[in-house]
Amino acid sequence: MSDSLTPSQPSKSTVPLDRRRGNSRGLTQAYDLRDAFAKEALALLADTVAPDLEQRCRRAVAATSLAKGWEAACDWVRIARGRPLPGSLRPTKQTNHRQPRRGLAPKQPQAPPIPGSTNAQPEPNA
Fold first, then answer.
1. For residue 37, how far is the Cα from the chain centroid?
2. pLDDT digits over 81-107, tens only?
3. Which backbone phi and psi does 19 adopt, to 5 degrees?
4. Which residues, at least 6 apart from 22, have a Cβ–Cβ distance to it below 8 Å?
């Protein structure tokens, strides 16, 4: 996993504030908490030796608490960055901006036929 934190890799919170978007101290704190939760959980899970059942149960509860804290910190980061929950925004219906097609020549209004006359039109002279 390329996202794991090691002492040689700096976390996102070590980037100077002026280079970050928002320059918010709350966002920096959320990143710091998220990174701390992840580091502690990985350190807890890396130690595989547990002498008895009670110790294993305590470690499982601690890992669960760290996972919940990490998830909460991720939500704080999401909220501070102004991103909604996935699926909470519905796309708006897009309107068709195209104009209706017109014929080659605009239609001329025709006068109603005169009663008693034939509908034959005079032929144009060539």
1. 24
2. 888 888 888 777 777 777 766 666 666
3. -90, -10
4. 80, 81
